[in-house]
Amino acid sequence: MSARTPIDELSNSYLAKLLELTPELVTDTGLPGDETRFSDFSPEAASEHAALISSTLSRLNTLTPHDADDAVSAAALRERLTTQAELIEAGETTGELNVIACPIQSIRDTFDLMSTESTEDWATIAMRLENVAPALEGYRASLTKRASTGPAIPLRQVEQCALQCEALTGADSAFTKLAAKGTYSTLAGVSLRRRLEAGAQSAQEAYGQLATFLREEIAPIAIATNAVGRERYSLFSREFLGAQIDLDDTYEWGKAELAAIIGEQEEIARTLYGSGVSVREAMDRLNADPARSLHGTHALRTWMQSTADEALATLSGTYFDIPEPLQKIECMVLEDGTGGIYYTGPTADFSRPGRMWWSVPTGVEKFATWQEKTTVFHEGVPGHHLQVGMATYMSESLNEWRRHGLWVSGHGEGWALYAEDLMAELGFHEDLGDRMGVLDAMRLRTSRVVVDLGVHLGKKVDVTGTANLASFHGKIWERESAWEFLRENVAMDPSFLSFELDRYLGWPGQAPSYKVGHRIWSELREEARQRAVSAGEHFDLKAWHMRALRLGALGLDVLGEALAATSSTEPQA
Fold first, then answer.
1. What is the pLDDT along the chain (573 residues), one digit of tens a residue?
2. SS3 track for 451-487
3. Distance between CA 68 and CA 80 in Å, rounded?
4. For the chain: N or C, fewer Cβ within 10 A?
C-alpha cells in the first residue's frame, strides 16, 4: 500500500500473527512463512487465538479511521473478530468435527497446494508429513476436551469422519501417492525419498490411530441428534454471512424460491421434450445427448479451460475491468478425487495463478456440459477468480489482511451465485439445456436453505413431493426426511448426495450462505440501481461491479454499508 494507517498496521499485524498460528494459511496464500508445520489443534490453541483477538480488538477500539476506506477496514476487522471471539467462548472452535471443514480434511488438503518444483519443495513436504502425527495428537486432545465440556458431537459426524481417516491409511492413500510422486522425482535424492516414504507411513498410521480413537473413545459418548438449535445456529449464520438475518423469514423465502425454480424447470422440460415429460426425465435425456457429453478427464479439462477463457475474453472491458494478472486462469483436474469442484486463489505475486479444480472420483469418465457450464462461471469468471483475484490485486488500497486473510462465505459464495445468475442474464445460457443446468444448481442451493434451517431449528416438515416425503409431513425435520427431500430436489449421485447431507448436518449455516448471500448481493445491486434512478443518473453496472469487487471480501452487513456510503457508482481505487 502507498500509505498505511494505524488501522491498516493493526490489521496486517493480526494477519502476521495469524500466519504464525495457522501455517496452512501460508500455503493457501503463498505469503512468506513456515510450511513445514500445521496449526496447533490442541485445547491450548483456542486460548492463544482468543488472546490475540482480544488484544487486537482492544487496540482497534483506540483508533480513529483516517477516511471512508479506513472505516471499512475497521468495521470489517471488528465484525470478524467479534464473531470469532463468540465462537471460541462458546467452545465451538475446540475439537471441531465434521465431514468437510475440520483438521481431518485441512491437514490432508494442504498438501495439494504445496509446490513440488524443487528439491527444497520436496524437503518441505517431507517435514510437513513428519508433522502430521503431532498435529493429530493435539487434535485428539481437543476432541477429548470437547467430549467432556461440550458442545456435544453428533454421532453421524464421528462415524463418517472415522471412515475418512481410514481411507487415508491404505496403500493407495493420498499420502502414499504423494510420496511416490516425490520418489519418482529427479529432484529428490535417495535420503529425501526415504524421508518422504517414512513421512507418508507416519501420516497414514496417525490417521489410523485417529480413526480408532473416534470409534472407541468419541462414538460411545456422541449424541444421535443432529440439530444444533436456534441459539447456536444464529451464531453460525452470522459467522458465514457477516450479517444478521431473520431465520424464520429466510426459511419461508427458501420454500417459495424453490417452488418458483421447480415451476421454471417443468416449463423447460415441456418445451424441450413435450407434455408429460418430468424434470428428471428431461435431465436424463440431456445426460444421454452426445452433443452435451464429454468423455475422459482430458476432454473435461480442455472444455473447462476453453469455457473459462471465452468468458474472460467476453466480459473483460464490457461488464468488468479485468487487470492483466487476472487474465489467466488455470483449469486443473485431480484424479481419484471426491467429486468436488473448487477454486484456489493466486499467490500474492501471481507467480501461481488462480486455479479451478475438478476432483474426479475414480472410474468417472463421463461429464455433462449442460449441468456444469454454470459451475465454470461460478468458480472462474465472473465468479471466484474475479472476486478473489481482484482482492489479491488491490495492493494499493487494501491492507494485507483484507487481501489475504479475510473470507466470508456469504460474500464469496453469494457473489459466485450472483455471477452464475449474471451470466444467465447476459445470455450465456440461452440454450434451454444450459438453462436447465443453471436451475438445477439453483435448486440445490435453495434446497440447502430449507433443509439446513429446517433441521437445525427443529422446524416441522411442511413441504411435500414424493409419497415418501409426504409421510414425514408435520414431523420435525431430521436426517431421514431431509434425505427424501434432497432425493426429490437434487439431481446428484446418491453417494455424493449423502455426503452433501452430512455436510449440512455437521456444518450448520454454511450451505445456506450461498443462496442467502446471493439474495443479499442481488438486493444490494437493486438498491444501488434505485439510488441512481432517484438521483436522475444512469446506473452503470460495470462501475458497480468494480466498486464492489475492489472492496474485497467483507461481511455482508459491512459490504452493504460500504456500498451505500457513496452516492456514486463509479469504482474507487
1. 457 999 999 999 999 999 999 999 999 988 999 999 999 999 999 999 999 999 999 999 999 999 999 999 999 999 999 999 999 999 999 999 999 999 999 999 999 889 999 999 999 999 999 999 999 999 999 999 999 999 999 999 999 999 999 999 988 899 999 999 988 877 778 899 999 999 999 999 999 999 999 999 999 999 999 999 999 999 999 999 999 999 999 999 999 999 999 999 999 999 999 999 999 999 999 999 999 999 999 999 999 999 999 999 999 999 999 999 999 999 999 876 767 788 998 988 899 899 999 988 878 899 999 999 999 999 999 999 999 999 999 988 899 999 999 999 999 999 999 999 999 999 999 999 999 999 999 999 999 999 999 999 999 999 988 888 999 999 999 999 999 999 999 988 888 899 999 999 999 999 999 999 999 999 999 999 999 999 999 999 999 999 999 999 999 999 999 999 864 444 443
2. HHHHHHCCCECCCCCCHHHHCCCCCECCHHHHHHHHH
3. 18
4. C
**CA–CA separation, 41 vs 101, rounded Å?**
13
Find the DSSP H helices in 189-278.
190-213, 230-241, 247-273
**Rounded Cα distance, 318 and 250, in Å:** 34
pTM check: above 0.85: yes
Grid-cell match 486462469, residue found:
329
Torsion of CA 459, 460, 462, 468, to 10 degrees: 120
Q: What residue segments make up the domains of the chain, in order of their start?
A: 6-231, 292-436, 440-509
Task: Identify which of 418, 387, 383, 367 has the alpha carbon closest to the alpha carbon of residue 520.
Answer: 418
CB 538, CB 563: distance < 8 Å: no
Grid coordinates belonging to 7: 488501522
Residue with cell 434451517: 453
Q: 34: which residues sit within 8 A by CB, 6+ positions away?
A: 20, 23, 26
Are the beta carbons of 215 and 489 closer than 8 angstroms? no
Element (H, E) at 368: strand 366-368
Q: For residue 63, which amino acid is it?
A: L
Residues 6+ apart with CB under 8 A from 71: 65
Question: Cell 415418501 appears where?
Answer: 468
